[in-house]
Specification:
The chain is an alpha+beta fold. The protein is built from 25 helices and 16 strands.
């Protein structure tokens, strides 16, 4: 858990204009900076970045947030990765209670990562340069229907023949970073004596693999003619773990947003060819089975994931592994489908033979996860026998146990129950599913709280825009908020607690990120504030003090009315009456002095 104080300090040190400016071309427009929104297609700039609020807001699609939120939404990073990326840029180290790495070792790890990244970048530039003069490689790519434009978009290159071409790229060919990055291999004699170093990639089309920040972290190399292996990938390195990365995700981010879904294929060439043919929203796993981390990354980019597999046995096995990886990540607001092409086709050949429109139709008619799961568990069993139905349930049990309680899980349970002549409650009990849905006692739905209006709304706006204002509110002020009613008081007290937790250096950017992570109730308010000029803190502070004084006076007046109708003795009324009148006079005197 990263302390809120660290996040506040981080957001006060970084400049969101610099962060967003790495990915979006910004131009000064008055007090803010403007650009084309990276989260939806537009021709006229509606995306604004405020250096004073340290916040971005799009008037077109209402996307908004601070620097951390921007990295999460734009690059698909997780929250911790986004914080670490920003912290590294300003020389801060993210505190981690579980991190036992000594400072010197951490510094060494960072230096190693930098050296490996630089080596991969230099190698990528070299391979790209070599492709321009490799007639055999260019002929191969043209034969596959690829243009120079798409090859350049994906940074494709060529590793020529020869054992040590990288010697011309790196003055010190013996440097350790070349081995650690997987660019070269050290072969040692059986007696452990002489060591021979040579390039890993030779006579191959090179596909650079980028992380979510666009850095080259690995390569995939394809032979031009016959040869084994057909594809050769970088080994696992400190930069590159196959189970965590997806080929083409960096290049496909905007296309995924535009299309509303991501298409997951089985290889590098599928991704590049589909981009050439009008489907730039494709990505691929890196010669390994789809993992739960892959699915998590994809669902950060879009609410709809479609897996495309060949219709042969290998494709079916890959689809089953993808299904198992998806189940822990499934939720009711996400859609996951499976597309099976004829055994003789991959996506590239299918589109070229039948056309983009037919392939688009196949995508939209892909099999939903629920249907695929039930088909997988029932396919080889005889449902007309008790033994066959028991086998189906046996196969389905671990799959359903890996799902979180949800409406979709309930739908699958109902389908399985119908298929195996059981009831949903029997399935959930037999499978020992956590938090059974079909038999759960449901609480009555809570009615939505009334929207804030008037004075309450104004106070809410100022507390969000200027979190340090919360430090100006005493216990009497917080108690007076009950004058608005229980729902309003709860809303105001929550904001005050959030603002006070941020402290004197709390900012609109920090508070808005916290609110975004914990509740969607304030999204509209945050968006409105983000789109308006920044208010003056001192003026708002004076207004808030006056507003709180009004609330206290109104609360005292209400209490006075209740006091006379409470049936108390004159002595009891008299004591409290004098206290109320004294407090009223003090508040009125304070108001006159202000």
């Amino acid at each position: 858990m990263i302390p809120q104080s660290f996040l506040t300090d981080l957001l006060n040190r970084i400049d969101i204009v610099d962060v967003v400016g790495r990915y979006v071309q910004l131009k000064k427009g008055g007090a803010n900076f403007m650009g084309l929104c990276p989260f939806h297609s537009e021709k006229s700039p509606s995306f604004t970045v405020s250096p004073t609020k340290q916040f971005y807001h799009c008037f077109g699609c209402s996307a908004h947030g601070n620097a951390v939120g921007f990295l999460i939404e734009y690059s698909g990073m997780g929250f911790i990765d986004a914080v670490k990326d920003l912290a590294q840029g300003v020389g801060m180290v993210v505190p981690d209670a579980d991190d036992k790495i000594p400072p010197l070792q951490r510094a060494a790890n960072q230096a190693q990562a930098l050296a490996l990244t630089e080596a991969m970048t230099q190698a990528c530039d070299y391979y790209r340069g070599q492709l321009r003069g490799a007639t055999n490689a260019i002929a191969y790519l043209k034969n596959r229907g690829l243009t120079g434009e798409v090859a350049a978009r994906f940074g494709m290159g060529y590793a020529p023949s020869g054992w040590d071409n990288l010697r011309t790229v790196f003055p010190d060919y013996e440097v350790l970073a070349l081995v650690e990055s997987g660019l070269v291999i050290d072969k040692v004699d059986e007696d452990g004596g002489n060591k021979k170093r040579y390039d890993r990639f030779r006579e191959r089309i090179m596909f650079p693999i980028r992380n979510t920040k666009g850095q080259v972290i690995g390569f995939g190399g394809r032979v031009l003619d016959q040869g084994e292996p057909k594809y050769l990938n970088s080994p696992e390195t400190p930069l590159f773990q196959k189970g965590l990365e997806l080929y083409g995700l960096f290049e496909a981010r905007q296309a995924i947003r535009d299309a509303g879904y991501v298409l997951v294929t089985e290889g590098y060439m599928d991704v590049v060819a589909l981009a050439q043919l009008g489907f730039p929203q494709a990505v691929a796993t890196l010669g390994t089975a789809c993992t739960s981390t892959h699915v998590q990354k994809l669902l950060r980019q879009t609410d709809s994931v479609i897996f495309s597999f060949d219709g042969d046995k290998a494709g079916r096995r890959a689809a089953r592994r993808a299904l198992e990886a998806c189940l822990p990540q499934v939720s009711d607001n996400k859609t996951i489908k499976f597309l099976f092409l004829p055994a003789e086709h991959d996506p590239d050949s299918f589109v070229r033979e039948f056309g983009a429109d037919v392939f688009e139709q196949e995508i939209h008619e892909a099999m939903p996860l629920s249907q695929f799961l039930l088909r997988e568990v029932s396919g080889e069993h005889d449902l007309s026998t008790s033994e066959g139905r028991a086998h189906v349930q046996f196969d389905a049990k671990p799959l359903l146990q890996s799902m979180t309680p949800s409406s979709l899980r309930l739908q699958i349970v109902r389908g399985l129950a119908s298929m195996t002549e059981s009831t949903p409650a029997e399935i959930e009990a037999l499978f020992e599913l956590s938090k059974p849905v079909s038999v759960a006692r449901r609480a009555p739905p809570r009615q939505g709280r009334p929207e804030p209006v008037g004075l309450e709304l104004q106070i809410l706006r100022h507390l969000v825009a200027h979190p340090p204002l919360s430090l100006e509110l005493d216990e009497a002020a917080l108690a007076a908020f009950n004058h608005f009613g229980p729902d309003a008081a709860e809303r105001l007290l929550y904001l005050v607690a959030c603002g006070q937790a941020l402290g004197a250096n709390g900012s609109f950017a920090a508070l808005s990120q916290h609110l975004k992570d914990t509740s969607n109730e304030y999204d509209g308010l945050v968006a409105e504030i983000a789109s308006e000029p920044e208010s003056d803190f001192d003026s708002v502070k004076l207004w808030l003090i006056g507003a709180v004084r009004q609330i206290k006076l109104a609360a005292l007046k209400q209490e006075l009315t209740q006091l006379f109708s409470a049936g108390l003795t004159s002595d009891q009324v008299g004591v409290r009456y004098r206290e109320i009148m004294a407090e009223q006079k003090r508040l009125e005197d304070d108001g006159a002095a202000a």
